[in-house]
Amino acid sequence: xxxxxxxxxxxxxxxxxxxxxxxxxxxxxxxxxxxxxxxxxxxxxxxxxxxxxxxxxxxxxxxxxxxxxxxxxxxxxxxxxxxxxxxxxxxxxxxxx
Length: 97
Description:
The protein is α/β, with parallel strands linked by helices.
């Protein structure tokens, strides 16, 4: 298990790895669905990629959330995400005649 390692400007496959107090800076973090053990790591300006089973799961969740607001709220709750309130439509100015 890498401890206190710094990864910078590289592609790091997280699945199957164990990372303890590591820093990821300007990296592409790739999650493939395999368990990733990350303890107290810092993630700075990284991109995230989902491949294999992780990509399939993400696509499925996206379809579920887009098709049913209640399901989207339930999934957000399971993930510990506080859904943001809907943005009210912008009023269009009325022209006087």
